[in-house]
Amino acid sequence: MPRICRPVHLMDPLTAPEPEPVAGCDVCAALARQRTQAHAIGDKAKAVDCTIEIRRHPHPKAVRT
Hints:
It is a single chain. By secondary structure, this protein is mainly α. The protein has two helices and no strands. The protein is flat, with a radius of gyration of 16 Å.
């Protein structure tokens, strides 16, 4: 029976580059501050959680005119 799907390769959140917060977004800025504080106290779980939230936080698409 042939394969009907390809393998999925997921990023390791501990080794993936950290996303930059979107300029002008208060939510992203707050998450970036929390992530910095978590790194400072060695709370890797909190830092990864903030990174994931920044990555997943929705922003409106740019409107082309």
